[in-house]
Every structure is written in structure tokens, then in C-alpha cells.
Amino acid sequence: MSRCRVQRVSAKERHAAIGDGVENGVRGVTMTEVARRSGVHATSLDRRWGSVEDLVLDALLDVSGDTLTVPDTGSLRGDLRAFARLLADYLISPLGTALVRSMSTVEDDSATSDARRSFWLARSKAAGVMIERAAARGDIAADVDPRIVLEMVIAPIHFRRLLTREVVDDRMLDAVVDITIGGLSFPS
Amino acid sequence: MSRCRVQRVSAKERHAAIGDGVENGVRGVTMTEVARRSGVHATSLDRRWGSVEDLVLDALLDVSGDTLTVPDTGSLRGDLRAFARLLADYLISPLGTALVRSMSTVEDDSATSDARRSFWLARSKAAGVMIERAAARGDIAADVDPRIVLEMVIAPIHFRRLLTREVVDDRMLDAVVDITIGGLSFPS
């Protein structure tokens, strides 16, 4: 099978998997259903992805690479507050919910592990611009690690959406951003 | 069936589910296997739990209610740093991994929603003592919300263990605790 043919088939299978994943929640998807929708034999799907969870995760990563825009409000507080709201909305959408639930359950093999790493690297590079701009303006110290700042803001939102399922409102989002910014070292 | 008999059967089924859940990862568990191990008909399990994910979550919540001890080092920084290490270790254990992965995927019905709420309420009440003691000592303002402080510390650990699967080391844990404490309002 040529590389081109593999790519085309893969896209079709991914699309079929995503349809299922988003409509039924990740756990409703079966290889049989994806095979029926994509017209590809279940045994071929098995050979390529190993499990339906891997297939769904692969499909979700494929379409949700650059969903969030990165705000540019002129201040770190404004940027992070706006970004937190975009993320909170995304994580309650069918696609966002399916993606994070799928990412949290999959037992990584080398392929999913690579896909996972690239996904978070691309996301944190894009969003890290907010922190880099703040450092360039002199609002925060130049040696602040953008990764940890982002994690302090986005982790509590993922935590509520995925695990506690508690309300995520503006008050909570602002508190998270304010504590994070308050805890950064400012240039002396 | 008497209440007592229901309780006994439930404990046996839970135990069977946990064995599976922890050994195979949550997605390896089937109602048939739990039925075989517990000696209870799969139809009865279906009636009681609806899905194998609900059964596993119920079982996991049942045994992991009070796994983490709450440190008392004399300072908020010391307490939170020690607690962060305990949590990071727990979340990489088979039981901790199975619990959070299971909690993140289950689509709540009213029973799992109640179990989820009680679980987090009990946990945050127990761990909240660290923040209450700090407020009583005058180390932080009395009106600081213990819940948000805890979330700022524990969410990034869950985020890495569940979603990015990146290394959680002492350096990362200390940075999370230090940013959180630095961002709290101190009494004037």
C-alpha cells in the first residue's frame, strides 16, 4: 500500500472515529462501528491502531491541534483571564470533553506518547507567547518559566472539568490567574 | 433481598471490579469478568450499576477514601510541599492511576455525581486543615479560600499525571507550591 493510500484511508477512519467519539462519549466507540462507517476492515484498524482508544485519541489530536486563539490584551492579567475563559469553554464542548477524557485514559505506546508530547509542546509554545510578551514588557522577571505559569492557570480548569466536575465561573478563573500572577517573581 | 445482603454482595462485586481495574487499567474491565470473579450474575450487576465504568468508579471511590495523610510540619510551605509529594506518589500508583482515569471518563448519573461530590468534599475538608492552620497562625489572611489554594497545588500534579504524562519532580512540585503561596494575600 502506498504512503498516499495509507494517508487517505487513515483520514477516513479518523473521521469515522471522531464522529462516534464526540457523539457518544469516548467509551461508546467500537472498532466495528468505525469499520462500518469508514468501510475499512476492523482487522486493518486493529493492525494500525491496536485499540479503539488509540484510534479515537489519534483522531481527536488530529483535528484539535489549534482550536484556541491566544489573546493579546496588552497585559499579562488580561491575556491570562481571556485565555482561561476560552479554555473553560473549549473543555465543556463535545470535542474538548472527548479529547481530554480520551487523553486521560489511554495507556501510551510509543506512537501515542509521541503524539501526546507534540500536542502539548505545540500548545504550550503557542500560549507561552503571552508570558514571553509580559517578560519583554518587563512586567515579570525574564527568567520566569512560561511552562509552569501556563500550567498553574490551565491545570485547575482541567481539574474541575475532568475530575471534580464543579462549576467553572469567572470568579474562579480570575482567582486562579490572580494567585498565579501574584506568585511570580517581579523584576527588582 | 435484605439491606445487609445487598451490602455484602456489593462489597464482593466491588472487590472483583477493583482487582480487574487496577491490574488491567480501567478499560480492560468487563462485566462478564466481574460477574465471574464475584459469582454474581452480569444482569444483576447491570441493574445495580448500569455500566462497568460506574461499577469500577464506585469500587475505587470505596477503597481510596482516605489514602493520603495530611502533613503537619509547622509551616504552610512545608505542609504543602510534603503533601504535593504524597499526592504525586499516589497518582502514579496503580490504585491512584485507576481512580483518576476512571473519574475522568465516567459520564455522571445522579449516583456517580453524588459519589464524586462526597469524595472531593471529604478530601478537600481533610487537606484544607493545612490552610486553616496557616490562617490561625497568621501566616496567611483569614479570608483565603482553602479550596482554591488546594486546587492550585494539586491540579498541576493531576494535570501532568493524567494528561501530559510529563515528569513530576521535586523542582516542579516546589515551584507550584511557591507560586501559590506567593500569590496569596498576606495579612497587613
Automatic annotation (TrEMBL), chains A, B:
It comes from Gordonia spumicola. The keyword Transcription regulation applies. One of its GO terms (molecular function) is transcription cis-regulatory region binding. Residues 70-178 form the Tetracyclin repressor-like C-terminal domain. Keywords: DNA-binding, Transcription, Transcription regulation. This is Putative transcriptional regulator, TetR family protein. It comes from the Bacteria. It holds the Pfam family TetR_C_11.
